[in-house]
Amino acid sequence: MDRTREYGTAFAVALVHVGLLSAGFLILADQFSFPEILRVSSVERLTLFRQNQGLIVPAYYMMGLSGLTQIMLAVLFHQSFARSGSTLLTAALVAGVLAGAFQMMGFMRWPIAVPYLAEQMAAAGSDETRNVVALLEGLLNRYAGMVVGEHLGFLAQGAWTVLISLAMFRGTLFAWPYGLVGLVLGGLIAVSAMEQLGGPFEAIGFLSAPVSAAWLGWLAMCGVSLARTQADGKGPRFFIFSALALAVLMGGLTATAMM
Predict the structure, then answer these.
(1) Where are the domains of the chain?
(2) DSSP characters for 155-206?
(3) What is the pTM of this model?
(4) Distance from C-alpha of 171 to C-alpha of 61, rounded to nearest angstrom
(5) pLDDT digit string (tens) for 146-197?
(6) CA 40 to each of CA 106, 157, 175, 181: distance values in angstroms, whole numbers, following the listed order
């Protein structure tokens, strides 16, 4: 069966996914001290949010939409492998859909719920009121952000990446280096999800931004590989130019995230 249309669609969605997350991250890093702002006090976070709300809300909405593109990618990759009944691919599909849902729920609190809390904090006439608003925002940040968006989201994203990477070794759709790189990145993403458990796990918090950025580079190159795949499902060979493109894209995005 000719699946070139599905391959092309997966390529386009992968680029949109990378674009949404990259653009959102760059705006938030400049206007909202992201991601460090997520670990400061509620008062400081809401104050800065209100100051730059006009840019912060659209940026978070873009990142929230990446949850939808993640779900689309999970479905498109599942169809691209064209192996009906595969337990591995079915598990990958479930993990990919959950990753998108968790991430969307985490990001969407910012354009929907946080503006209300920021208004209440600004209008608070007493320390008691400010403390209550801060408590509510802190609880929302820990549950919707740290539990759902980050911990569960990263676990599901890591699982999807690992499972898809394992599937890459079992056919000709992708060259094996994509599977190898994906296994490493997926494992690191899953490990970085442990940061939200606190205690000694906080030491691995530095992994999140660079690994997520490198993952975007890997995903973009997987999309490029799919776009070049033949109608019979045989992917392009992995030559020196593919290796250089993968290294440059992953390295460039990682360097940008660390700036």
Answers:
(1) 4-258
(2) HHHHHHHHHHHHHHTTSSSS-HHHHHHHHHHHHHHHHHGGGGG-GGGGGGGG
(3) 0.94
(4) 37
(5) 999 999 999 999 999 999 999 999 989 999 999 999 999 999 999 999 998 8
(6) 17, 26, 43, 34
